[in-house]
Amino acid sequence: MPQKKIALLFFFLNTFFLNFTFAQKINEVDKIVAKYPKSFDTTEKLAEKIEKDFDSDSDRARAIYSWIGYNIKYDYNAYLNPPKTQGFSYSSEAEKQRKIKQLNDNLIQKAFNSKKAVCEGFTALYQHLASLMGIKCEVIRGDSKISLRDIGRKTLSSNHAWNMVFFDKKWRLIDVTWGQGYYDTSKGRMVNDFNPIYFDTDPDYFFAKHFPDSGTFLGNKLSKDDFLNGPLIYNKTIEEDYKIKSPNSGIIEAKKGGKIEFEIKNISKSDQVFYLNKKNQAVKIQNPKEKRGGLEFEILNDNNVGEYITIFVGTSSVVSFKIISK
């Protein structure tokens, strides 16, 4: 692989968005919705179209995800320069709720009409369309894990929002903001690149990258430490079901000159597996062993290993760890 391309890949690891699509799994619902108009007169007209074309709540929930993912772009300028929080006065609880609803309605219409939004707009629009079809949907706010510097940070922050949607007798996890595309550092702009992996994501993968403000999911308490100190996983990991078995922490304490042991499921010796050293040079994994449906290998913690190790399969980043050398 050319050195320039390797360096560029490493640079991408430190950008705000890590939603590169390597192996899209487009289904029949996505194909139908891709032919929809980019604009509808009202959200009600869009909901009517989806209800006419699809019979089940699962397909309708997917169609909402697809349409938003195809047509609404992340407003990166608004992310960098967020508008001031709108305050309001009220004389009763009823008036308060009316004004909150009006602000939310304005947010929905702005996202729908302008085709731009940040996560609050994406999630509010998704919830609104779901409600028009009688599908239970909640907006969840919390923390997100998107960059190398997030590994081992000390505190949680409320910086993101996503949806929980109920269909087929189960609550499902959905992040349509991350499904719509990514920030291209070379072009300095957002790129729409629809990715289905954040629709009905496996909770184990989802909560490696999301932590709700409540710290719970359907009554089950989530581990703040596991989230903060866990490794950083990428889209390819979710797409290919690469399970990171070892190390089980995102923070590796290792002696200089010692070996760090790794185990990743659903990877084989036929895959091209490597990591980048601190000079952004690709280093091929030597003498990997296939065991228990995965690959076991070692990396020498020498002077060429930097503060982070990111494992690649082919051209796709799979997992990153923070290295603390003793």
UniProtKB/TrEMBL annotation:
<dbReference type="InterPro" id="IPR002931">
    <property type="entry name" value="Transglutaminase-like"/>
</dbReference>
<dbReference type="Pfam" id="PF01841">
    <property type="entry name" value="Transglut_core"/>
</dbReference>
<dbReference type="InterPro" id="IPR052557">
    <property type="entry name" value="CAP/Cytokinesis_protein"/>
</dbReference>
<dbReference type="InterPro" id="IPR038765">
    <property type="entry name" value="Papain-like_cys_pep_sf"/>
</dbReference>
<keyword id="KW-0732">Signal</keyword>
<feature type="domain" description="Transglutaminase-like">
    <location>
        <begin position="111"/>
        <end position="178"/>
    </location>
</feature>
<protein>
    <submittedName>
        <fullName>Transglutaminase domain-containing protein</fullName>
    </submittedName>
</protein>
<feature type="signal peptide">
    <location>
        <begin position="1"/>
        <end position="23"/>
    </location>
</feature>
